[in-house]
């Protein structure tokens, strides 16, 4: 089976596709100055773009791992955006954890595994 990598950098690829499964690296917002809701919206938009490029979409997400800088402060705001975004009837397996992220202004990072379409 071949392995396809999208947007390859020296340390990681934004997406890796193998055997009909799409693995996304942790995605972040473009603008890290915003609150949790804005950062979550931008992160989900980045996920949408990468999934489309990889031949998938949010209805095909198998699992999601969400990392929050401050779970007490940001869980409700993140969930409000997540709930509005996730496809009805297609909620993936999910874990949400508090983590020390790579920079203090990063409030959320989301990692996705999805099936390719068809």
Automatic annotation (TrEMBL):
CDD domains: YjgF_YER057c_UK114_like_2. Pfam families: Ribonuc_L-PSP. This is Enamine deaminase RidA, house cleaning of reactive enamine intermediates, YjgF/YER057c/UK114 family. It comes from Pseudomonas flexibilis.
């Amino acid at each position: 089976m071949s392995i396809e990598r999208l947007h390859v950098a020296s340390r990681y690829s934004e997406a890796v596709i193998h055997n009909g499964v799409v693995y996304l690296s942790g995605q972040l917002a473009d603008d890290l100055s915003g609150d949790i809701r804005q950062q979550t919206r931008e992160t989900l938009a980045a996920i949408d773009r990468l999934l489309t490029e990889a031949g998938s979409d949010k209805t095909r997400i198998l699992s999601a791992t969400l990392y929050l800088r401050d779970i007490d402060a940001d869980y409700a705001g993140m969930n409000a955006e997540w709930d509005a975004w996730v496809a009805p009837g297609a909620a993936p397996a999910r874990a949400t954890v508090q983590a020390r992220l790579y920079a203090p202004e990063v409030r959320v990072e989301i990692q996705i595994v999805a099936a390719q379409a068809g």
